[in-house]
Amino acid sequence: MKLYSYFRSSAAYRVRIALNLKGLAYETVAVHLLKDGGQQLSDGYRQLNPTALVPTLADGDWAVGQSMAILEYLEETHPEPALLPAGARARARVRAIAQFIACDIHPLNNLRVLKYLKHTLEADEEARNAWYRHWVGQGLAAVETMLAGHPDTGRYCHGAQPTFADLFLVPQVANARRYDCDLSAMPTVLRIDAACNELAAFRQAAPGNQPDSEG
Amino acid sequence: MKLYSYFRSSAAYRVRIALNLKGLAYETVAVHLLKDGGQQLSDGYRQLNPTALVPTLADGDWAVGQSMAILEYLEETHPEPALLPAGARARARVRAIAQFIACDIHPLNNLRVLKYLKHTLEADEEARNAWYRHWVGQGLAAVETMLAGHPDTGRYCHGAQPTFADLFLVPQVANARRYDCDLSAMPTVLRIDAACNELAAFRQAAPGNQPDSEG
């Protein structure tokens, strides 16, 4: 399998963790979001993925984008170790945490959105950083509430094994740190992030450990 | 089951279509996003759903948010009629279309984001409408490319039966029309939207047909 990835993309980061946890070998194809006016916007990449977003997973001559769709695909085709818990309600809880991060935190702070704020709305750096921290702060505070004190929260977001929820949480926390967001009121989020990062599968998926990493 | 819903919420609209297609009876609990300073922000609603977003599906004393998590839950607990196709790759394609709309079009145009643009970034109505049309236009153009000419596109986004992809497409098209977005370059999107709206399950889920509708 090939993963079209950018080291800093948190959506690609989620998939890298899943591939590592499942022990699946893959080749990284670097798509630099800033070079050449954005390599994801090239005709070649758009043929593979018309949305011009990373990541894309290619399996032979077949390819699919969107991190959550890729994770569900990997879960169906390589079910062990499971990254979704047993039971429809437990799976719904895990997917809801993951989806909230995927839909309602991350896309607001995507590179293309920050570019629009800068170039079209002429928001200065201070306003853009405030925007970023607003959505991350509000979003991760809600995640903290979903996790803290919930009977199913364990060492990880759900129980004693990593699930999709952790795969979305850890890259989002990494982004938050990069933008100096205040995470002091989110002890459960921080505890789970630390537990995940004790696992090599998470650490090896981090932006700093990618072949296209710039540090 | 109870669906905490706002008639204009396109995320709630997706779930309403699924419940109708699967023939599941449910009670609508209206959560007015504009009244009382936003009923979704009340302590009561936040206890049910800490993200303060609609929809929430309640099944007895259990509840879950996030439309995609709810749809996967309904698919697992009420598998007929199936809203995901057979085959892992086909399901990945359907989920990728749905996720792209869920993550990369819709959240950028959410009410809370438009409010931030207005009140914090002081973007005027023209700038806010341009923002809305930018993301919808770019997003649905990518959806058009994913659908047009793809061998698996049929009467609906994938084959001859509605799938998750259609449940995300139709509410997004309705939003686009509400904001006078130009859809003339998206004939496949429009054809599939029309096919879906021939089904009562889609029509009955539309904003204008909800108990809390304001027209």
From TrEMBL, chains A, B:
User: Gene3D superfamilies attached here?
Assistant: 1.20.1050.10, Glutaredoxin
A cellular component annotation (GO) from this entry:
cytoplasm
Q: Which InterPro entries match?
A: Glutathione-S-Trfase_C-like, Glutathione-S-Trfase_C_sf, Glutathione_S-Trfase, Glutathione_S-Trfase_N, GST_Zeta, GST_Zeta_C, GST_Zeta_N, Thioredoxin-like_sf
Q: Which GO terms describe its biological process?
A: glutathione metabolic process; L-phenylalanine catabolic process
Q: Write out the GO MF terms.
A: glutathione transferase activity; maleylacetoacetate isomerase activity
Domain annotation GST N-terminal: ranges: 1-82
Provide this UniProt record's keywords sorted from A to Z. Answer: Isomerase
Isomerase as UniProt keyword: yes
GST C-terminal domain location: 87-215
Q: Indicate whether Isomerase appears among the record's keywords.
A: yes
Pfam families attached here? Answer: GST_C_2, GST_N_3
Q: Which domain of life is it from?
A: Bacteria
> Which PANTHER family does UniProt cross-reference here?
GLUTATHIONE S-TRANSFERASE YFCF, MALEYLACETOACETATE ISOMERASE
Family that this chain belongs to: Belongs to the GST superfamily. Zeta family.
Q: What is this protein called?
A: Maleylacetoacetate isomerase
Q: Which organism is it from?
A: Pollutimonas bauzanensis
Q: What is the lineage of its organism?
A: Bacteria, Pseudomonadati, Pseudomonadota, Betaproteobacteria, Burkholderiales
